[in-house]
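Lecture notes, structural biology module. Today: joint structure prediction for complexes of three components.
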Amino acid sequence: MSTTTTTDARGKAPAGERVADWADGRLGIYSLAKANLRKVFPDHPSFMLGEICLYSFIIIILTGVYLTLFFHPSMNEVEYTGSYVPLQGQLMSEAFNSTMHISFDVRGGLLIRQIHHWAALVFLAGMFVHMMRVFFTGAFRKPREINWVFGFLLFVLGMFTGFTGYSLPDDLLSGTGVRFMEGAVLSVPIVGTYLSFFLFGGEFPGGDFVARFFAVHVLLLPGIMLGLVVAHLILVFYHKHTQFAGPGRTNNNVVGMPLMPVYMAKAGGFFFLVFGVIAVIAALVQINPIWSLGPYRPDQVSTGAQPDWYMGFSEGLIRAMPGWEIDFAGHTLVLGVFIPLMIFPLVLVAIAVYPFIESWVTGDKREHHILDRPRNAPTRTAVGVAWITWYCVMLIGGGNDLFATHFHLSINAVTWFVRIAFFVAPVIAFVVTKRICLGLQRRDRDKVLHGRESGIIKRLPHGEFIEIHEPLSQEQLHTLTAHEQYEPVEIGPKVDEHGVERKIPASEKLRAKLSKNYYGEGHQIPKPTVEEFKEITSGHGHH
Amino acid sequence: MSSQDIPEKNLPTAQDEHGAAVAVADEENPFADPGLPPHEHRIQDIDERAAKRSERTVALLFTTSMLATIGFIASYVTIPIDQNIFVWPIGHISALNFALGMTLGVALFAIGAGAVHWARTLMSDEEIVDERHAIEATPEVKAKVIADFKQGAKESALGRRKLIRNTMFGALALFPLSGIVLLRDLGPLPGTKLRHTLWKPGKLLINQNTHEPMRPSDIAVGSLTFAQPEGLEEHDHDFQKEIAKAALMLVRIQPDNIKDKQTLEWSHEGILAYSKICTHVGCPISLYEQQTHHVLCPCHQSTFDLADGGKVIFGPAGHALPQLRIGVNDEGYLEALDDFEEPVGPAFWERG
Amino acid sequence: MKKLSARRRHPLAAVVVLLLALACTGGLYAVFAPADKAQAEETSQSLAIDEGKKLYSVGCASCHGTGGQGTSDGPSLVGVGAAAVDFQVGTGRMPAQQPGAQVPKKKNIYTQAEIDQLAAYIASLGAGPAIPTAELYSPEGADIAKGGELFRTNCAQCHNFTGKGGALTHGKYAPSLEDVDPKHIYEAMQTGPQNMPSFPDTTMSEQNKKDIIGYLHAVNSDDTVEPGGLNLGGLGPVTEGLFGWIFGLGALVAVAIWVAARTAKAKKS
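The predicted structure, tokenised, for the full assembly:
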């Protein structure tokens, strides 16, 4: 307690310090702050993507709490008597009625609803981009694999929290979405019918699902997500942030601005910026106008029935699937629905397990804190782009009707395009991306060895024109050659030490094959060596 | 999958262990890390006037925020909730939503912009270096933990007293069953509920527009009408559940154009009654093209041919749209002759 | 042709022809046509039919046949009624320019009087729905909420929840109902143009149609209030998602770039 150095004239510490002392005596905050108050965060715009997610999540929680003050999660039928004329006298569930009340009869209610929904779309989009940033820079490598999985779980849980929230107003569009979900549950072999009856408390739509979804949407999923967010942030603090290669930046340090004060101001300020931008969007742009959609009735529908964007790829899967159905022994296997239902998680898992596949192929057990430039990991980058392409093809499938009307195409043609592109487009994207990465690697190599093209053309005495190449600074040379390059793994000796033929496990063969496709000749451009550099630069200057 | 699997030489050369040590450019390695470049000053660091300007900008932003918040409160109090304004180019929008959103947005954005501008121009921008520390424990620590654990395990006698261990695992494995059993009352068992609808012999077809029964002469060729069973009212407790199965669409096709014999037999003089519920996942399907006799589902584009037994001709639906047998009663009104022969809506395991 | 019809046009002809066209549906609107005028009407009706026939043989006969009996290029027009003609020609769909999945609406090249003459001629080929009176399709007196329910039951599946249009099979589509004349909406419901099914008065009463038009007027017109702001085409989550990505996340990324960017350094002197 007597460690204070700043005491005023009467020998008493300032009030703030006394509060801190009080807290330290109970929480040990000084020890905690010692390591963290000047904790360093590197500056890069792409490192802010995670913050966009965190802040939109906080905005969603704040606005969501407000909405629960007015929302009635009940499916009792009531007659609308609010102020929106085109629905007066219509029968609707209390859930819809109270959402109408929030939108038209609570001052600011519509704004909060719109902020909530816009923030949800931005939250999911932010997570998607953040995840891709982590993927393409290899930030998922040891020691951050667990945090990658946490982030992935947050994305998936965010999708389902979004879906349950979208279903709560019980409007014509969301009801159609819930009906789709019911059909999907029914398609599950053996237990599907039972699951559906348990989920809806009987036959669809029943009178229970809004209340049940409400509990899931406001309590269960956000609770888990909050825990994961906290764990995610603790790990970010604990691992310290990654950084791009550069002068003075090594695998063993982190260079940037201190948390106190710069990052507190920047990150704290960024929260307000995100909130401000979303509030302005909510002031100007309408989202989910349930009054136009009308209350849900299972016998009514509107064309353009789509889920929010993050569920769009599942919609695309189901729209593109052919209608396979097998009847046997008095049972029906609804493959037309069940196969997409199974591919849906696989699409997500495909990207989630990638880090573990890569670390198996490289066999690298070291920590990595320096980020890769995407070009320097051509196969990984190509896999990522192929996955995004795959995802986008499915998104197009999910909006096939709007593609058809707005680009004057046949909806059947769009569907057939999606069916074919589902298999073909990722392959093309993979090949093209890899070639682009290799091209960029070659350019980097040329830049290192021959310098930067200055754009200045010089005529030599004998008449030849050459472009002057400016040599790079040492900072640039270092940055461009800082990345690591692996050698492909080879299958061990065919015979063991006794000369007996060794049985090579299939997994080892597979790994050798994959490794060759990652790091073999033609799959990465060897970075220039010091010898090459010296030979070129010492010879005849820059040519 | 231990690290011995990969020969050391295949891994990239050992990483730089220098930390932030500033390596001077050397003849030996032109690619060596030259270390952090020297810090350069911003205008605000060397020119007090520029710093003052920044200070004023930040203060202005914070003041803007205060004014915007006052504007928010003023808008809340003064603007009636039902007042609309025209904002070019958006159109007619709620004045209150616009005013509240803009003032709130500006109030928040200005705080953020002020803080960030302050950080960017007035706080030190000298980069500092933090060393990383190994996450893995040292061998000594690891050995201590393992020894402690072994000691504890031994003291628990769990390894020796198998009976305790086995019964404990049994108990732990069984008790979650209670939780699963408790979920049983989430809903009733399906039974044959999905197989039946409200339709039965003699039920009149009630027009959903006029809420009147219909005569065959009311249904013109090329027209589309939606019907529900007699006796079902929108106010009924189970209306949603019943209409989800019983919703019907009525079309009339010239008998010559009906390709399927049974389709024609089940119709009344070319008036066909089909379930409105898609056999894919249950969307109300009714995008009827009267010239092609195709009906399209707006959700997933399953397409059915109503002139040919409601057969699927495109899209993800797996079986034909169920047709309801209809006829005319003594008073000349359209009536159902039976319930649907097969379950309506999406397929399920027990459908068969 | 145009000259000829223009010369013969009486100042009141348009009104009279309109009434006549109504009368020929079977006297449904006979109350509007006083008996003492019947003789004069009959004369001018046959006049209009003659004029219509001439217009027909120039603009329509190549596809629909010289007597409206239809050919392989166009359906028979016997019994389609005046309302169908008024809709098809009045919205510019007919005469069609080229075959395709669907005949789109385009600029109408006929005057209303000419359309009425054409309609009178087609109506003379066989009884069909007449051109509705303004009273029938005016949004006034409509029960908007009831209209909304009817719209969601009968129309939204193709035309979207506020009539923004949607896709049908093989390149066909349900057009947007924005800025469509209420009369044409009424006629479309009555006659079922192209692949649209018809909703005749026997199954969808006149009041039902009026309610639907009233609802559309409330939710899809220039005066429609979109309380939340820009409606993004009223197409639902697809455009909302696109906006969220491009402008929502886009704006935030732009802000992030500003936050993380290096502050300008003082120039070295």
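Point to remember: Residues 194-351 of chain B form a domain with the Rieske Iron-sulfur Protein fold (CATH 2.102.10.10).
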